Amino acid sequence: MSSALRRYANLNARIRARLARLPGRRHLETLAAYPDEPSLRRELAAVGATAELDGVLAAFDVVLALLDGAARDVVESYRARYECENLKVLLRAVELRTPYDEVRPLLYAVGDLGSGDRAQELLMTSTLVDAVSLLPPVPFGLLLRRHVRAAGAAGAERFRLESVAEREVYERLWERVGRLDTRDRESAVRVLGTKVDCVNLGRAARLRVYHALAPEEMLLYAIRGGRFLGSAERAVLAEAPPGRWSAALAHTPYRFVLGEAETPPALELSLERLLARETCRELSRNPFCIGIPLAYLILEETLAADLRRLCEGKRFGWSESRILEGVAIERGR
Amino acid sequence: MFRVSPMCRVLLLVPRADLDAAIDEVGALGALHLLDLAGREDWVGGVRASDVAESRRERLDALRRLEALTRFYAAPPPRGLEAAPLLDVIDVEQQLGQWSAEMESLRSERTQLRDEIERLEHELRAVRALAPSSVNISAVRAMRFLVGECGWLEQTEVGRLEESLARIPHRVVPLERTAEGQLVFAFAPSRERETLERALRAVGFERLELPADASGIAGDATRPLEAKLEQAQAALRELDERFERARHDLALPLARARTAIERSLLSLEAQALAQRSESISFISGWVPRTQVDALRAALRRATGGRCYVRVEEPQSIDSVVTRREAVPILLRNPALFRPFERMVGAFGTPRWGELDPTPLVATAFWIMFGLMFGDVGQGAVVAMAGWWIFRHIPRYRDYGVILMECGFSAVAFGFAYGSVFGREDLLPALWFRPLGDVARLLRIGIAFGLAFLSLGLALSVLNSILRRDWAAAWWGPQGLLSASSYWIGAALALRWLASGRMGVRAGVAAALLGAPLALLWAMRAWTELREEREDGSGGSGLVAAVLHSAVELVDLIVRSIANTVSFVRLAAFAVAHAGLLVAVFALAQTVAAAPAGRLWGFVVIVAGNLVVIALEGMIVSIQAVRLVYYEFFSKFYEGSGLAYRPLRLLPHGASKEQA
User: Fold this and answer.
1) Residues of chain B with pLDDT under 70
2) ipTM of the predicted structure?
3) Average pLDDT of chain A, as a whole number
4) Does the CB of B402 have a partner CB in chain A at under 8 Å?
5) What 3-state class would DSSP assign to B193?
6) What is the nearest CA distance from B378 to chain A, expressed in angstroms?
7) B164: which chain A residues are within 8 Å (Cβ-Cβ)?
8) What is the pLDDT of residue B40?
9) Cα separation values, B340 from A36, B355, B602, B656, Å
């Protein structure tokens, strides 16, 4: 047995054990029936699930500990998205002058910005330009500073900086995927390619609907990479209005999703469900490749997001059915 | 020694017109600890507080402006400040306006020049970047149907830009690759200007600003720009020189201005404490008895003899006798003990009528340090370090003296222990060797503790007598009854430790020890009952009073034993010191077996000694301070007095004020 096979076998065993403990759809429905948020959180604690940010990062630690080489690079690059999430949270906080104490629970303990010192330093600034000037050169400092300079007197808009940073993270991830061996690359494209497509579609909808960007700008903020969305599809997303996307992308599995959703959040939820289905399918494929850990990580992320939605729904006093409408996991115990 | 400087309270009456001059003279003398007169002197009905708020605001504003100037000029330390005459604060305020205007002019000139240089550099960078491609700037400017933008973007973004502009006719022409990225010219039809600009912004395109007056081939435009840049840089250099000259020229005036403002502020603080009637100002304060005549003379000088000084002895002041008013304390000790006033002051200032413990603290500290750190060589090193600090760091002169004294004590005990840098074979021990007789060292530690604590108890009794607090002197927690039971107990314990017998029968010993304790118990209970009756609280009755005093008694006994045993640390640290040095020599011996072993052995001994001096020296000092503060002071010293802080208006430099 080669070392790669042995490693994946070991990882697969660990992941299967952890998957068995994850709450499924039926469990989520039971949780949605809890009377209030505190009782829900108590139940979550009792079953060892968590809606907090560190739960997902712990799953990454488990996977990373058993990987090396190009496969490990891919997972690390995938985790780097949380550095981007930290950046987005901090830029918003700078713009809204939010104090550090309120921001702290929203930061993932990953990368430079996840550390208290750097985040606090950034929150001392009062403008996006100042905040960007304080960022470490990599992964985002140099890139965002260039865009701030390019914006010149017009001033840097937060959503543009966020879009550029997010694009950078996903394109770097896609570049790492390209370095995998054939078997791993195929499975990574199935999982991460679908993920990148979903992100691209969601971002395109938001940039078009909420920020009314012109096609050339849409194209520049689009992520180059993905499973079904190539340059032709990206051009369609940039130029055609969202209502015509479904027809224009009829050859992709996203056609139904694009046809049903009416708003960007609804589209994102549908895409999340589609991604969850794809990851579940991947879990039943070849156990000796990177697809399994990637699918598991995406499933953990989806589940954590669902649990957060449950808690938030309970906090706002929503009905059980309304809460479950927003849950992405559709199957399972 | 032991007693503080006698103080007198004075009331100074001066004409209102002479108040400023009087405060200046009194401040220059530096002897008057000011008192706030408001509400203190009943007989001065109808007087008002001096209104200095407005003047104070003005001075503080002037000080802020001065600080801004000092920061701006980063003024170097002034020379000749001591010899410079005092400035008038009114002149200072006028000059501040002039200096501020000069500073603003310099600052704005500098900013303009720097902005100009930055713009020229940017333009020059643009023209230089275009020069190798021989771009015709005039031709680019003359385009009517095309719009062209030149600038840098990431090499990897060129393709992305091309893709985003695919919908419109366009041309992206890569030129040079520089440190800033890929230099490109992007062209599009004029009607697509907005599309092009949106795309360039989203791709992170850093636009290259061409100089407004440049024309022809890019390479030809560099020379005129370089000339302009050189000119601007020369102007900035000249401005920097002007600034540097101003920085040095203003150092002394700024320092003098600061002194004048600070003095004026202090004087205003003093005036705020004074009261005034229609024509007279009243100042009150405490002054050392020896300075009364000097104060009188100073006032006469300031007022031309039109003044009145009333002097009162503390014993004759009712508020002092009844402890409603504190007398400021000026300690008075010989030079050898004076540095230890800091140690006493850090705990607290003695109260008026209390003994000054500084000489005892100093003596005990030397002995304890020597006992724990006895070594001729290391003591000499400590003393030399103290000498160096004494000579070269005036601010820490007191610490230098303490180090020298402790060093000499360590040398003396080093001879007693026969130890030189840890070697015990060079000198005979005049007394004994610590590691050779640890039991003896322990006995010495305990004996020292007994003597030291007994001294504390005696001082407590003496302080109570000086305060005429007879109850505390007899049956206070550290009174005569408590002290006598401690001494009897100590004597019996020492006898038993020395010979295994107490020398008296157990019954007699119990009676000797029990009698003062029983009396103390009874008197404490009686005092509590009496106090309850006096304040009319009724209290909790006889049983509770007896129980309270019993608990107090047990606490007193336990604390006395703990305080005494605490002095075992003297022996423990002396043994640790000697033990550490033994370890250093053992290590040196081990190393000596290696190649070049003798050299390495020597290095180990030197380094080991240095570590021991630094580490042990610090630990031993901390332990000695601890024993003084917690064991000795807790017996008699309250340290709740008021430190003497006279108004002091120094001619220049740091002015000190009364807190």
Assistant:
1) 1, 39-50, 82-86, 536-540, 650-659
2) 0.84
3) 89
4) no
5) helix
6) 45
7) 215-217, 219-220
8) 63
9) 67, 15, 37, 21
